[in-house]
Write a structure and sequence with these properties.
- There is one protein chain.
- The mean pLDDT is about 95.
- By secondary structure, the chain is an all-alpha fold.
- It has 4 helices and no strands.
- The chain has one domain.
């Protein structure tokens, strides 16, 4: 679980940095960035599966509702940002993707704190 969390954080920060560079250059999101967001989403799905298996095997978490709320929110943030980025063809699409990537990275941190408690 710990390794997957740090992989997702690294991928989100890389995606966020890429989006920040494009936003500073006044450029819209490109399709390769949306593919990268899809790769992050795939790792998030694997993490969600691992989380479910660990809890099914008896791993205890202090606040399971919050943990699953964060997990489900993470699955929805990047696809929503991808839709907005695809529709908004200005530099603001890069800003939206940047905010979504940073939000997902922060939610990963919160999941790690809840899991470690």
């Amino acid at each position: 679980m710990l390794v997957l969390t740090w992989i997702v954080v690294a991928l989100c920060l890389a995606l966020g940095a890429w989006a920040a560079v494009r936003a500073l250059r006044d450029q819209a999101v490109i399709l390769r960035q949306l593919f990268a967001a899809g790769a992050v989403e795939a790792v998030l799905l694997v993490q969600l599966l691992v989380l479910g298996v660990l809890q099914a095997r008896g791993a205890q978490v202090d606040d399971g509702v919050t943990l699953w709320g964060y997990a489900i929110s993470m699955l929805l943030i990047l696809p929503a940002a991808a839709v907005v980025s695809f529709l908004e063809r200005t530099r603001w699409s890069s800003v939206v993707l940047l905010i979504a990537a940073l939000t997902t990275a922060f939610l990963q941190y919160r999941v790690l704190v809840l899991w470690s408690a």
